[in-house]
Amino acid sequence: MIVRAIEQLGAGALYHVRDLGRMARFLGYSFAGFFKRPFRFAEVIRQLRLIGVNSTPLILFIGLFTGMVLGLQGYHTLSKVGMEGTLGMLVSLSLIRELGPVLTALMVTGRAGSAMCAELGIMRNSEQFDALECMAIDPFRYLISPKYLAILIAMPILTILFDLIGIFGGYLTGVVLLGINPGAYMSGIEVKVLNEDITLGLYKSVSFGLLVVWICTGRGYFVQKIKGAGFGAEAVSRVTTQAVVYTSIAVLLWNYLITAVFI
Amino acid sequence: MKPAIRFVDVVKKFDDQVVLDHVNVEFQKGKTTVIAGGSGQGKSVALKLILGLMEPDSGQIFVDGVEIGNLDRKELDEVRSKFGVLFQGSALLDSMTVWENIALPLRERTKISRDELISRVDDALAQFDLSGHGDKFPAQLSGGMRKRVGLARATMLHPEIILFDEPTTGLDPQITMDIYRLFFRTQQQYGFTSIIVSHDIPKVFNLADQVVILNDGKMTLFEKPEFIQHSTDPMIMKFVEQTMGEVYTSSEELK
Hints:
The complex is a heterodimer.
Chain A: H1 2-32, H2 41-53, H3 56-80, H4 87-125, H5 128-134, H6 139-177, H7 182-192, H8 195-221, H9 232-262
Helix pairs in contact in A: 1-6, 2-6, 3-4, 3-6, 4-6, 4-7, 4-8, 4-9, 6-8, 8-9
Chain B: E1 5-14, E2 17-27, E3 32-36, H1 43-50, E4 58-63, E5 66-67, H2 73-80, E6 83-86, H3 98-109, H4 114-127, H5 143-155, E7 161-165, H6 173-190, E8 193-198, E9 210-215, E10 218-222, H7 234-243, H8 251-254
Helix pairs in contact in B: 3-4, 3-5, 5-6
């Protein structure tokens, strides 16, 4: 009984070490794909449309309401200590340093990451990767690296949009609805938001983008090697769910680490 | 003559299941070899080993005299450029139209002009009875049409060897015959070496110059299909008894 439990523990550990090794090699091949010719810029544009342009309405919607709620909550908290005038600073710093990059990453994971994972999983199951390899076409150069480049471009842009619309949402509730002085709201942003806050937010967004594309494409690519995933359509569905969960956890953990280092 | 493909003492296992057990076999150039055997006997695994999509646990595989086990990515791609493959499910790229799927190997592996590309793809569409379907996506095609697109794509670069993985699985008898006719016509035109994996026995035997029977991890090569019926090997006799009751497709019918 005990021996069996130890065996299972060992087998589980070995599986995860192998899985991590596979994923690390996958990341390396994906970056190597940037340097192989001919690089598919047309595919990067197509992916930018799918990941970036098509995600924009959702990002704007979530950003606006996040900013409005922050404005509402912030006003009620700050008014208790008579500091309503600092609402602009609170909303903008919260969005630029934390909420903007994190929520954008979670939205992109749910919308584009899951789609990428399912697409690659289906391609693996229907031997489309094998077909590419048999035609001596590198699937990383052809399919995966353009997704990486597209998400690394799209994520900071989406994050900036999220931050801007969020700050506008805070303005709507704080200034238009609750009557804070608009000059105080804007000067709080102007004085307290530093370049390093914006840089940190953008670094975060790029690193989260990398996590999203790495985990989601990697899980889809290795759909047939994932223990307990099952087969066929069921495997794709389970692995897609797994990719979204793993990416969300990775984003939150990485956000904590980055914040702890740079705060 | 140097064989197109040679297996030397090849072993392939999945966990404890031995799929190929010290296999030694040669596939001759310019000939059509059918690999026959029951489901789950490792026929498709043999094809993936030939293409370097899987590695054997031990033994060597030679393609045109080159051992593929120790090749780097670039060298393996050079070997793969000798092949065309028709996959069991056709493996067409879902996001591309029929036209784009057929054009893919030309676009990626050659530097021909746009005009020539268009002309060659349009010719292929006509040759494989796909005219008027170039703008459709794979999901809009029937099984037989998908196979024809797959075959058109496999032959676009005039490969030396074409591998067919269960080319008629899931197709009705009439479309099966159409696919075999198309295969026969294309083979006559290009003269490639072909390896057909099939459990559609004995319908494919009249296409074959050689037959390899795969059973319990062992491959047995017959220089002519009709030699199978004279075998005294108990395993082969059992196989003949189980599968040869059906009527052969005549070569006249295929022509």
